[in-house]
Specification:
With 95 residues, the protein is an alpha+beta fold. It is built from one helix and three strands, in the order H-E-E-E. Strands 1-2-3 form a three-stranded antiparallel beta sheet, with helices on one face. The longest helix is centred in the middle third of the chain and has 65 residues. The termini are far apart.
């Protein structure tokens, strides 16, 4: 046990030592929770940035496909098709 727990036990008995030990454990859990919350906030910020970038690239790709007359485009990776279903657009790359 830590020195604080031993000190508490000598001053206030075993019950006080148990409370001190529990509070120390809660502090550790609180610190771990704070670190995880900070990581989660950072990941959500990154996800928003990635989503905005995806939207921007899809808009640029839309313009390229429109310039091609909405016909399939040959790319080094395969044939690119734009598919619109129920108002939702997606791009399909056939290899």
């Amino acid at each position: 046990m830590s020195d604080r727990v031993h000190d508490a036990a000598s001053r206030g008995g075993v019950a006080r030592a148990a409370v001190v030990a529990m509070n120390e454990g809660r502090k550790e859990l609180g610190a771990k929770a704070a670190a995880l919350c900070a990581r989660l906030a950072d990941l959500r910020r990154q996800a928003r940035t990635v989503e905005k970038t995806i939207v921007s690239v899809e808009q640029e790709l839309d313009l390229v496909v429109e310039k091609a007359g909405d016909s399939p485009l040959e790319t080094p990776s395969g044939t690119l098709h734009r598919v619109v279903e129920a108002g939702a657009r997606r791009f399909v790359l056939e290899v």
